[in-house]
Design a protein that fits this description.
ABC transporter transmembrane region fold, alpha/beta, Rossmann fold, six-stranded mixed beta sheet, 60% helix, elongated
């Protein structure tokens, strides 16, 4: 069942911080300490500025006695220079550690995401655009990188700076500090109103990026179909709709974001002027200074205060753009957590497929490869273990299935696939043929009824063991970037080169492979673009052959092979099917004539069953299909 709940916005940040600490339990605290020290050092020059101005004020009163004044100023300059040098070293070390931390975190995030994605059921990929999933690995991870490497540290520096300078200001003059706080309140109000709207649109932008990439990926995959049916204008319209939504969200986000900065700049200038005017008035009216330092109002207090005012306003101003980046990063993190929160494919099976050997007439598990397979069945109630030979006996008993609870796809399906039999499914598109094969390998679980494999309830068999015993050749061939040999070996990773070559010969693929530039070592593009569609299909058949499973599922496996190639491969296919239970989905009725049993499906129900001769004699729907009186539609 798909998990439709998305992580709440409030819960994303604590969860993200928890994962950051988990990924780097020692490095991250060190970075935070360095940031704290650097931010505090950055605020300390205000104190030295006040001391220097006080010394100069005293020197002016003493008619510039440099013999007394010069050592004091030099003392402060040396200390200040040392602090700046220390700040430079700390910032350099902090930046290096942040780069290491960020890349390590992103690497681990991508690893966790991919591992979790591999554990998701097929249903998830059937209901999500591939482009949108890919966007989580690219755009969402990049938005999170920006937040972790730049926005979080800068935001933390700004907050520490604001707090430190505010404490220093209150130490020297509470009255002037209150003036700055009043200006800061105005700045925060403006930031909240305008920045809040900007943040909302930045989140919409992140979501629309994924949708747009999903549309682009879909259009690229379907480019041939688009051109064949002159669908360019309609494809453009679909893209424009998604792109316009992205544009609108991006435009509004950046409009508010770009408007905010000039407003804050002008407000900061006004605060600066207000502090200068207030300081002048306090000095002129001889207002008593309220402070922790005990210093009276003087030039030595007001001049450094103006510098602190600029530094304080600048730190607050830096918070706004960082908040936008944080919002985008959190939006990306939220989408990533939505992927990680998807429910994994459930597997309660405990019956395993193991290598077996015969000892004293009984099967037992073997640590070596024997070529003999058995189901290792542990009986919990008795505490005993039995070994059932793998034969490939698949049976459905009154099976119902629905992708959605309100729409049943299969109704009361009963069938028997005995070892070595060839069972063919015939029917119109949407009749339920592929759905039945998806139930055999448990890509989906049945709603009602029972499926037994070698007389074992299929739900008791571990999915990895179950799928190891099944081979599939799909109508749409999937090849991976790599050599021809590697693509064949994908069927069984421990297969030798000789076994892969034998499988290719069995499928009839060896003749064209040996004519390739590097033979079996020829590199293939991921989509098999340097091969014909029929050649790709032959490689898929060879891949299934090297797996050597007792049960084969052929979903219109020869649909992309021309008549001549089909004749070449038919003998190999017959050899491939020998001794195996084979389920065939076919639209070419000529390919299922030799099936042991043919099931005719209509709207998820079996309406006819029998051999080719029996169904022809019955003159039902199969007869009409075979003679052309009725079309598959």
């Amino acid at each position: 069942m798909k998990n439709t709940a998305r992580p709440s916005a409030a819960g994303v940040l604590p969860r993200l911080l928890k994962m950051l600490f988990r990924f780097n339990p020692t490095l991250l605290p060190a970075i935070l300490v360095l940031i704290l020290i650097s931010a505090v050092i950055g605020a300390l020059p205000s104190i030295f500025q006040q001391n220097v101005v006080a010394v100069l004020e005293q020197a002016w009163a003493n008619r510039w006695d440099w013999a007394v004044t010069k050592p004091k100023i030099l003392h402060f300059v040396l200390i200040l220079g040392g602090l700046y040098l220390l700040s430079l070293l700390i910032n350099t070390l902090s930046n290096q550690l942040q780069a290491i931390h960020t890349q390590k975190v992103l690497d681990q995030f991508r690893t966790v995401m991919f591992e979790h994605m591999e554990s998701l059921p097929i249903r998830y990929f059937d209901t999500h655009q591939r482009g949108d999933i890919m966007s989580q690995y690219t755009n969402d991870v990049d938005a999170m990188r920006q937040m972790i490497s730049q926005s979080f540290p800068q935001l933390l520096v700004s907050l520490i700076t604001v707090t430190t300078i505010l404490c220093i200001m209150m130490y020297y003059s509470i009255w002037l500090g209150l003036v700055i706080l009043a200006g800061a309140a105005v700045t925060v109000t403006i930031t909240k109103n305008i920045g809040g709207k900007s943040a909302r649109y930045f989140m919409a932008q992140q979501k629309n990026i994924g949708k747009t990439e999903g549309v682009i990926e879909e259009m690229i995959n379907g480019q041939k179909v688009i051109k064949v049916f002159n669908h360019e204008s309609e494809a453009q319209a679909i893209f424009d709709e998604a792109n316009n939504a992205l544009y609108e969200a991006s435009f509004q986000a950046n409009r508010y974001s770009n408007t905010l900065m000039p407003i804050l700049n002008n407000v900061n200038y006004m605060i600066y002027v207000l502090v200068a005017v207030a300081g002048g008035l306090f000095l002129e009216l001889r207002v008593p200074n309220l402070s922790l330092s005990g210093l009276p109002f003087s030039i030595a207090v007001i001049v450094p205060f103006l510098g602190m005012c600029r530094q304080f306003s600048g730190a607050i101003q830096q918070i706004s753009p960082q908040i936008n980046s944080v919002v985008m990063g959190l939006a990306g993190a939220r989408r990533i957590f939505a992927l990680l929160d998807e429910e994994e494919e459930q597997d309660e099976g405990y019956v395993e497929l193991v290598n077996a050997k015969e000892v004293n007439g009984e099967l037992t598990e073997s640590s070596e490869k024997t070529g003999l397979w058995a189901w290792k069945h542990f009986h919990r109630e008795e505490g005993t273990t039995t070994y059932v030979p793998l034969r490939g006996d698949v049976r459905f008993y009154d099976v119902d299935f629905a992708y959605n609870p309100d729409k049943v796809i299969l109704h009361n399906i009963t069938l028997y696939g005995k070892p070595g039999q060839k069972i063919a499914f015939v029917g119109a598109t949407g009749a339920g043929k592929t759905t039945i094969t998806n139930l055999i390998n448990r890509f989906y679980d049945i709603a009602d009824g029972k499926i037994r494999y070698d007389n074992i309830n299929i739900n008791k068999i571990k999915k990895s063991s179950l799928r190891r015993s099944l081979g599939m050749v799909l109508q749409d061939t999937v090849l991976f970037t790599g050599t021809v040999m590697e693509n064949i070996r994908y069927g069984r990773l421990d297969a030798t080169d000789e076994e892969c070559i034998d499988a290719a010969r069995l499928a009839g693929a060896d003749s064209f492979i040996t004519r390739l530039p590097q033979g079996y070592q020829t590199m293939l593009a991921g989509d098999g673009s340097n091969l014909s569609q029929g050649q790709c299909q032959l490689l898929a058949i060879a891949r299934a052959a090297v797996a050597d499973p007792p049960v084969m599922i052929l979903d219109e496996a020869t649909s992309s092979i021309d008549t001549r190639t089909e004749q070449i491969v038919s003998a190999g296919m017959d050899r491939l099917m020998q001794g195996r239970t084979v389920f065939v989905i076919a639209h070419r009725l000529s390919t299922v004539k030799n099936a042991n049993v043919i099931l005719v499906l209509d709207h998820g129900r079996v309406i006819e069953r029998g051999t080719h001769e029996e169904l022809i004699a019955a003159k039902g729907q199969y007869y009409q299909l075979y003679t052309g009186a009725f079309e598959l539609e």
